[in-house]
Amino acid sequence: MDASAEITFHAESRTFHLSNGKLSYILHILENGQPGHLYFGKAVRDRPDFTHLQEKRQRAMAANPFPDDDTFSLEHLRQEYPSYGSSDFRQPAVEILQADGSRITEFRYESHKILDGKPPIDGLPATYTESDGEAATLELTLSDARTGIQLTLFYTVFARYAAIARSACLRNGGQEAARILTAMSLSLDLPDSDYKWLQLSGAWGRERYCKTRRLETGITEIGSLRGHSSHEHNPFAALLRPHTTESAGEVLGLSLVYSGNFRIQAETDNQNVTRLSAGIHPSGFDWKLEPGGVFRTPEAILVYSGDGLNSMSREFHRLYRERLVRGYWRDRPRPVLLNCWEAAYFDFTEDRLLRIAEKARECGAELFVLDDGWFGSRTSDRAGLGDWQPNPQRLPHGLAGLAEKIAAMGMRFGLWIEPEMVNPDSGFYRRHPDWVLGAPGRTLCESRHQLVLDFSRPEVVDAVHSMIRGILHSAEISYIKWDMNRSITGAWSAALPADRQGEVFHRYILGVYGLYERLIREFPEILFESCSSGGARFDPGMLYYAPQTWTSDDTDCIERLKIQYGTSLCYPLSATGSHVSAVPNHQTHRTAPLSTRANVAFFGTFGYELDPGALSGAEIRQIQAQTAFMKRYRAIFQFGDFYRLKSPFSGGEAAWMCVSGDRKTAIVGWYRILCTVNPPFSRLRLQGLDPGALYTDTGTGARYFGDELMYAGLTTAAFDGRSPENGDGGDFASALIVLTAE
Ligand code: DGJ
């Protein structure tokens, strides 16, 4: 039976129960009119009243809004969208500075609506529905009587995903302007703190490493103040029960659909209640809400899994792949590409590009991507950024001429752009020195010799739009890699008044989203890949516009095990840009077998980032086999179910696998990091198979039932020698096992 999304309202107890058979989310209206939280977790049967789940008692030092009820203190009640100032001392979800200097608000129930489907969020990325019954949404409207400000909380439950989407809207129905200092997308008060916190953190070249720690009394927090979601912390966190593993135990996953400054926090209070929150980072944020003005927060997604991390990830993967990514490429396997960045960097002519492209075609590539350096005076990263005209010395026949030659080879043509930035040494900057972000009298910090255009200004976005649009019309371009290579400093806009400078970061990212939206509408069949010095903007916000993201500038396959493993916690393989690069690797100087480099890159969008002209005939033949293999199986890699099997963070081996929707084909990737002498035996227990189906290992012809593969496992000693260069094993060996059932 198809699952359905249900929202039940029990008028007497003023309780809302959102459920879809996988999870339940239950809230009610407290005695003082504020919404209180009752339950989030595995689906429970509905009943008219769940108020018993709201624990209340008299506690020393608690402040009580009702003089006659010393058990009612907001400090100890679990709430839905708390504000500071009237007896809750924890971190607020909302804080509004009012004309009289007060920051106290009391948002009380006014009305609610239950809708079929999910309304969009104007100007912001968000999950969506396509047909009736896919989701139901609760719109809970509260108001603050003193200011006249209305707060609407949105809760969507999906029929097919174990996920709840939340966001909030503030509308100033009063007479005076107010300033929003904090407006979280989500706040969730959990009854205990018996959790491990998992975050995806790192730095350039080592993005999204899995880091865990126990929750402790106080605040556990990640965030970005860099203007992009950042290499350092991804807008994702999960709370795991202490014994949760990849395949068992409870997990709450939290992901913010936003690409700018963010904060995700868990605050464990003195009674072990844990307040989880996510939203725009309040630091430096200050949004002026004029009378009649409306402010929408980004959306946050909560996923519940009772079956471990793999199951949480698959819910995120399916939701993001099917109902966050949009457009022509959403359900289409991605082209095998060759990107010339690591092949040539800034050192190319049209002839050199054509030689690389011709070899790429021979290897089986379907898309040739011209990276940085094709425009203006951009022969290094010191000049030309912002001048979006082909460099006639490098491309004498323009982009159109090059694209035609690529098309004549039978490949599509793709291009790199970095529309949000300028080099000071560029015609664009010389014409518009006042269009970059930066406060007068303050240091204008360059990073990679570039400055950030003020995308909070519509005229700046319009000017960039007309240049990029012109480029996209000038040649047959099928793919765009949209890069963003620095963090934002000096977030001050010449176009905004003093009392709106706290809006710059958010307005900037709205400008980026607006430009993406215009371009994807005008060029719906172009495949966009977002990028930010590798993976500094690998976030759900970007996926709404660009179906795939360049995962990291670190293309070393062994390093990529950790990066792609961490990325897979939240993001689907169809979004994970992964390429085979040359050896010695340009970042680590490591030499890993070509087979291992491909065996890692298959688990993503797949392509090459090397000069195929520098390869031997045998290597070219190996690559031809790899591209043919990927074309045959890419639908399973990119749209199948993904399972992590062995973590590269905890041992000398890593493994993962993809299973087709009908469970008839499974592809397992196994990787040895460093070999040891006289290694102990190890087993690889597979997941997601049909226990009764008989699978054939297409490499060896061996046959196994699904239950044996999942419960007894494969013996990894048998993997040595499976890849051409592995021989008897050694460092960086790998195996790819394709299993098919009748
Ligand atoms: C950073 C990207 O991550 C690289 O792949 C490459 O496109 C360079 N920028 C080009 O400047």
TrEMBL record:
UniProt entry keywords in alphabetical sequence: Glycosidase, Hydrolase
Domain Glycosyl hydrolase family 36 C-terminal, residue spans: 653-739
Record-listed substrate binding positions: 204, 371-372, 448, 481-485, 531, 553
Domain Glycosyl hydrolase family 36 N-terminal: 33-290
Catalytic activity, as annotated: Hydrolysis of terminal, non-reducing alpha-D-galactose residues in alpha-D-galactosides, including galactose oligosaccharides, galactomannans and galactolipids
GO molecular function terms listed in the Swiss-Prot or TrEMBL record: alpha-galactosidase activity
Hydrolase among keywords: yes
InterPro entries (UniProt xref): Aldolase_TIM (IPR013785), Alpga-gal_N_sf (IPR038417), Alpha-glycosidase_related (IPR050985), GH (IPR017853), Glyco_hydro_36 (IPR002252), Glyco_hydro_36_C (IPR031705), Glyco_hydro_36_N (IPR031704), Glyco_hydro_b (IPR013780)
Active-site residues per Swiss-Prot or TrEMBL entry: 483, 553
Gene3D superfamilies listed in its UniProt record: Aldolase class I (3.20.20.70), alpha-galactosidase from lactobacil brevis (2.70.98.60), Golgi alpha-mannosidase II (2.60.40.1180)
Top-level class of the enzyme under EC nomenclature: hydrolase
GO biological process, one term: carbohydrate catabolic process
UniProt-listed Enzyme Commission number(s): 3.2.1.22
Family stated for the protein in its record: Belongs to the glycosyl hydrolase.
Protein name: Alpha-galactosidase
Species name: Candidatus Avitreponema avistercoris
